[in-house]
Amino acid sequence: MNSAGPTAYGSPCRVCGFDWTRSPRELIDEMNLLPATLDDLLEGASGSERRPDLEWSIAEYLCHVADNLRIWAERLVGARLGPTNLIGSYDQDELARARNYSTIPLAAALWNLRLGEAVWASEVNQALIDSSTLAHPEVGTLDASDVVAMTAHDSLHHLEDIRTILAHPRS
Ligand SMILES: [Zn+2]
What we know:
61% helix; 7 helices
């Protein structure tokens, strides 16, 4: 297993408690519940709720998670279809600025997340079957289970951020 995630966040993650040793299948099952979990959690929310100690509002976190899932799915498609499994890095803050996350309504962000999770689940399943690997310029070789763990962690970590904001909203 690639150690980038546990090294950066702790094992388990110091913030969200994510267990890096969970199986890819278990993580995909949990991720498949994420859109419905968020729909329920955010009933009555505006999406603009935020806390001063967290970078983004709820809707902005959703935009980031959705984009991240689609980007990783796209990377896996690239590796599958070739000619190379070498991926480029992207700057999540620059993407947030370019897409102007703060103007995207909550309902649209939830729609995007549902689509992102679906393509992510489809592509990580295929990558596990194919034993695909990605060559990441900063963290090195990632096998399919590393990709599942890194992307599931990003999503579930921000789900915790959203729960924290909802528990103590301050705008
Ligand atoms: Zn975490």
